[in-house]
Amino acid sequence: MDVLITGENDERVGLSVIDNNDAEHVIEMEFDGDIKYHHSDEYSRNPALRTRKESEYGMQVRRYARWHVYRERGYDTVPPRENPDRLMAALLAVAELSSTAFENYFGDLETRLQAHYDDSTVELPFPDADPDDAIVYQQDLSLQPDPVQFDPPVLEQFMARFEGDSDSPAIDALDELQFGEMDVLDFDIEAVSGIHVLHNDGQGNQQVAESEQTLGCEPDARIELLAFDPSSVESFQHYLVSHLAYQIRDRFLLMGVKPPVPFRTQGWGTYEGFQCQKFCSLYEEYWSSEAEITSWDPETV
Fold it and tell me: H-type helices in the chain, by residue range?
């Protein structure tokens, strides 16, 4: 993936992006990340005539273009829940919670998950849903201070803390750091939403029930967990921290680039990442802890 900012005026930024298939894309993007023009001579203008891989190349380009403009120009062009800097801030905030605070924020989520594996009644907001179907529980977080107002960016600052041990997983490195050493990388959870529920029947039908308890603003991160038995892990808090690290991994993979080395670990990240990794040959099954991964570079898959 290669990108060049070709121009900027009072309304938009222009870019030329070479995708992992060596095709050029011309993009015009507004400062909020809205893409007003996107064209490539290599692919059909009609989405119905593009293959799954060709469509994904285009999506990778759009995601990477937003990330590049955000990092190079400072505009908030990346959708909040997809921004690795915001996800890194959320990871730090969750990791630093006391056990009491963690229970207050995420105890209901753990209970909803556990209901699938004990004798509790699983209450789903869909009359046609089976608890054994794919059920994803989602919970939004807002943080303070604003994670995108840092220079250098949050992820870069965190990476610099263990630069000499960059081949260690991020979670292991985090365990070795003292939070007193994190300086300005000190984030608080301002609020959490209620629990949203996504149901996929495995036949291509998907439905989502949003909680009435919303944040009232764009979230900085979204927890999204496929129903699993939380008693199977030693610490649900550590599991959520790992989950956010896997989300960071997914966001780089979906941009068509290798994740930073400490985030090249396997496990459940984003639901979007799972869908792409499961059904598009550009990716391996990074979501699965049991899959054999041959490459962390989407360009070579």
Answer: 52-73, 84-95, 99-114, 154-160, 170-176, 236-253, 271-279
